[in-house]
């Protein structure tokens, strides 16, 4: 490595500090997680600042009881007081002994299962036995068995994975040598060695690495999904001290295990010196060591206490809207079931009173048994007890009114729907080679009812691939030139040992700025240009890696970093001749126009959401110390000395305004020189904050805030983040579907507005309401003024009586767009102004929130979710979107450039924002229509069967005997009718993909709950009542006065109802396939076969009944007549309704059926106007 050409010749105070600072690490991102049990999260709060936390309190030492004490290379002493968790991990839920009780306990959380368990238990009592004791348990046992097998298989896979993980081998330092040891046997306090490309077995603090400066590069892909390499550092005191064959003595005092993967607070005592440890000194389980030959560290958290395992919570559990609504209908059916039982019991009571004198001789209730030649008393328990028994027996007989098969059918249908969503080529992202992911199977149908979409901007609407476009330096605007890329790139290649070294990415450059940067200090602006690009190259956490190419003489420098913005700025600096070529824990090397210069990194304060800026302190070759700062304009102008260079500041503000107006992301660059006393003061405060175990994050923010002041402005940068493919068209389609799209972004207002126009979120015809206030009173005034404006528009709309009969106020005469910033939201959220904001927002077509914090995003979603019954969807790609995604009814994660935190917290995941359109319009619509129909059909299918049993009870002295064979009763919901329901729920399509995509208005059917509502439920029940009457009474009257036995007419009722419900389903199938035909007609055939088999078994009741009954013409005539009479009213009503008052879906279906297909897409069909008025 070449040294700077002007090395310092004198020894100064700065030099001493620089040498001492070689052991100091960069202060890294500290994320503080609140504890919900101690303090409620307030979405509108600004968050804790350094000023709000007393400095003295933050420096209090944490007691030994509240900290974890780890004696390095002494696991016995470390674990003597408290036996810390071993390194064995277990992600499985069950063991061999706990599987049965725990799985059953979890399954019986469903109230319906408890209901059927009670029914089965009642049927075991001799006095109440209606069905065979074994037969009554079959339905519940079948459902429990299927679920248990599925859970057992999933848990077996988890155990298998755990076994592989726990039995891996790692190198552990024992008695001066590294020996192989299974991962599960590693203990806290042991020293571990990791070689290149090996996974990390536990969370350990770095002691030494193969790099002389103590740097290690790790990939956190398995932890947070980010593929970029991260830098971790070993302290210089431990880097130089640790040697094999010698025992390392030290004490680490660290915080207790927690889930924060971005934070770590600890101190290490080595040679009576206390060193501070942060997140840059710990490597977590799940990472891999890259570009480093080896690394040695001491285990601090093992097994279930590692941060990776503590964060292993899986996707959130949510319940669908349809399932919630379904519960109310189940309660209604339960009341109806109780009513049937009460009617039966009351009628039985009356009958017993009237016939109490004849009970000795009546066949069902006789008290005397004379069959054996002598009188024996039957067990007769008295009038009251017999009525109770009748009620309980009624519950057993009519139990199928509550469809137990519905739950497992819904699960199977959702699995089938998820399969087709995953396999849909429209949801496949070629750029990232990622398919659609369905992480929550229980809310598929909610995708068809979305009313609000809350979207992040960067990485969700945009590509999050930053391109440097403009620079404003010392008041002069330098926009990118239009010269050829190849020529520009060749000018910035370096010759190193006969090989060409150049940046991996190409950047457009401004030729004038390029010329000025080459001239150095030869011109007046040379110093500012030099400092500007030095700031871009140095003020970051980028790690430069040398990558081979197909040409052995050419090497590429790949800048790895967590932020795409930092990468873009570093590549831009390289394009202008300031190429970062090396970074270690204590220094960086930058090639400035062919001359390598080394800068000592004395301190680095990374970006945080409170300061909204980052800074680096560099020790230069002339012993000067420079502070470089970059950040958002709102935070930077508050720390810039505005008394200096006023004209430059004003010019820069003008340039920032112009950059933002065209949608560019902007940052402001500033600097100042630190004199010896300022540096010494900062150094002392920084060391104190770094070694504090409590409140370290707040203290470091305070230190950074104190030093980042009185800056001299250097200029500003502008980066373009292009829109993703298809975003404008997608947003336009979503709005046509009646979906309100809200964009929640951390960008400044001008940038967000520009993106809003380019994405067609905002239009020129919209009335924009902007709320940007710095205090509560001003914010309240702005809200009230905006409400007045919206009410005037509303009043103008109501003149035309467009919303006559509706209380909704969603639409206005002129579309309105609300644009509000994060500062205003601080005063609005968690206050009485929330209600006013909600009232205003629901009148607006678009809401654009700027400069919002992650918790504010969740607060905005909560604002809508808690005040309306409309379904909400949140979509984002970064860790800052997780709270929003989890708050919404449906959370969608984008597999983007910012890692996979959003994906891991989401219900569904995909590669592009535009995939929302086919996901919602096609799969969401199909899922909702199918499941809505399936639930109603299951209610109908079971209710018609129960009513047939009820009618029979009325004609048999209320004795709860059944004509239908007990085996047929149990098989009815399992074999006779279950398969067609599932097949139709998975495969049926009311409309084609093409029609649904071309006509977004059709999506409104789900928003209006047209497929499942109380009106449809009661109509279905009315149709059920009619069909049950026909099925029961038609054979009764046909065979009245005949000698047909009960079993024969019971078989007729069984076949009639099975054929009827399958024909009922067939009438509603839209798209037939061979699978649909096979399932429906196959179920009918299977029923015939089962009835024949059951009646052919001599041991069962009704032996040979079907063969006797089916031998007459009357049997088949009744079978045919029942189908016609039962389905005729339904057919007539469907015809009249579809012919005289069709809805959008029926019109579109007819268009699909009869129109002539053309290459250009055929005719356009006018959809009914979407309103939020009463349902049709």
TrEMBL record:
Its cofactor is Mg(2+). Residues 1-25, 46-60 have a biased composition (Polar residues). PROSITE patterns: ATPASE_E1_E2. Residues 1-61 are annotated as: Disordered. ATP binds at residues 456-458, 566, 607, 630, 665, 745-747, 851, 857, 880-881. Mg(2+) binds at residues 456, 458, 877, 881. It is a multi-pass membrane protein. CDD domains: P-type_ATPase_APLT_Dnf-like. The chain crosses the membrane at residues 111-129, 135-153, 330-352, 387-408, 943-964, 970-987, 1016-1040, 1046-1066, 1078-1097, 1103-1128. Residues 70-136 form the P-type ATPase N-terminal domain. GO terms for biological process: phospholipid translocation. Residues 903-1142 form the P-type ATPase C-terminal domain. One of its GO terms (cellular component) is plasma membrane. GO terms for molecular function: ATP binding; ATP hydrolysis activity; ATPase-coupled intramembrane lipid transporter activity; magnesium ion binding. This is Phospholipid-transporting ATPase.
